[in-house]
Automatic annotation (TrEMBL):
GO biological process: L-histidine biosynthetic process; methionine biosynthetic process; purine nucleotide biosynthetic process; tetrahydrofolate interconversion
HAMAP family, A to Z: THF_DHG_CYH (MF_01576)
Annotated pathway: One-carbon metabolism; tetrahydrofolate interconversion
InterPro entries: Aminoacid_DH-like_N_sf, NAD(P)-bd_dom_sf, THF_DH/CycHdrlase, THF_DH/CycHdrlase_cat_dom, THF_DH/CycHdrlase_CS, THF_DH/CycHdrlase_NAD-bd_dom
Protein name: Bifunctional protein FolD
Organism: Pseudomonas guineae
Taxonomic lineage of the native organism: Bacteria, Pseudomonadati, Pseudomonadota, Gammaproteobacteria, Pseudomonadales
């Protein structure tokens, strides 16, 4: 049993602000090379949540000096029209990153659209070239949410070598890339999913737990090892006392009695996702400049590294 006051509440807003500061510096450095990072954001239809996400992404881009170009398409846009737009953005040297806001309307094949994006401009890291590159440990664009979780883990624990990490959830967007990133950081990784047997017991062995399930407060203290570090990716909207509120996949109050550090919801992983999108736009700009990446790794390119 912990005293809740000894638990570190991992501040995702502060961590995201640090990443965005680094991005701002890197964008300024790129501009000295006459490189002007630009992000194209494509929204099909009028889904209110997607509109909010797109607005936030555009705002963050502007704050960091990244040029953003919005393409708002009507809900009856055909797949062929969307693919034409992406082909144009792929060919446009003034565009460095392409983000297609998901979900797409049902008549459009999401996978075909994601595979049409130039892997070097794929700032969401969903193209199979980048997914494969991640699993091979190559220096590719990686999905924003798991990359944001890795930042928070390194900030909290430093070196992750040899830690036992349990990822709860195996989606292509969060769980699988999360597991690949943890493996790359030399963790021993267990991935749990809806068919896992003894999930709670397996989870209770973990030094690090990343919860990405989409079930409100599913993991309480009985799932967690004393002293573990918990990253809660879940964003669940629930009704409580006649009010709507956001909660994670972890029962935060219960977890406080055992963990050493935990992310809150909201204010944990959420802010990191957009910050990492901006970081990926800078990385994409660098990857597209062979002169900046041939003689040294891109992280070592002059003046342009961001942590
Ligand atoms: P998905 O619905 O795509 O995946 C959920 C995963 O959880 C599946 O792999 C599923 O297993 C697994 N699962 C479901 N029930 C159980 C269970 N009882 N025990 C163990 N595993 C289970 O969700 P996402 O990965 O897209 O998102 C997960 C959560 O993260 C959501 O709340 C989402 O809103 C949030 N999210 C937050 C982001 C952020 O920026 N903070 C970004 C993206 C997502 P199976 O594969 O067997 O079905």
């Amino acid at each position: 049993m912990n005293s809740p006051s000894s638990v570190t509440i991992i501040d995702g807003k502060a961590a995201a602000a640090r990443v965005l500061n680094d991005v701002r510096d890197a964008v300024s450095a790129l501009k000295e090379y006459d490189l002007h990072p630009a992000l194209a954001v494509v929204l099909v239809g009028h889904d209110p949540a997607s509109q909010v996400y797109v607005r936030n992404k555009v705002l963050r881009a502007e704050e960091t000096g990244i040029r953003s170009v919005e393409h708002k398409l009507t809900v009856d846009t055909t797949e062929a029209e969307l693919l034409d737009l992406i082909a144009g953005l792929n060919a446009d040297p003034a565009i460095n990153g392409i983000l297609v806001q998901l979900p797409l309307p049902a008549h459009i094949d999401e996978n075909r659209v994601l595979q049409a994006i130039d892997p070097l401009k794929d700032v969401d890291g969903f193209h199979s070239e980048n997914v494969g590159g991640l699993s091979q440990g190559r220096d590719v664009l990686t999905p924003c949410t798991p990359s944001g979780c890795m930042h928070l883990l390194h900030d909290t624990l430093g070196d992750l070598n040899g830690k036992h990490a349990v990822v709860v959830g195996r989606s292509n967007i969060v769980g699988k890339p999360m597991a690949a990133l943890l493996l790359q950081a030399n963790c021993t990784v267990t991935v749990l999913h809806s068919r896992s047997v003894n999930a709670r017991e397996l989870c209770r062995q973990a030094d690090i737990v990343v919860a990405a399930v989409g079930r409100p407060r599913m993991l309480d203290a009985s799932w967690l090892k004393p002293g573990s570090v918990v990253i809660d990716v879940g964003i669940n909207r629930i009704d409580e006392g006649g009010k709507t509120r956001l909660v994670g996949d972890v029962d935060f109050d219960s977890a406080l009695s055992v963990v050493s550090a935990i992310t809150p919801v909201p204010g944990g992983v959420g802010p990191m996702t957009i910050a990492l999108l901006m970081k990926n736009t800078v990385s994409a700009t660098q990857l597209q400049q062979p002169a900046l990446s041939t003689h040294s790794t891109r992280a070592e390119a002059p003046c342009l590294s961001i942590s």
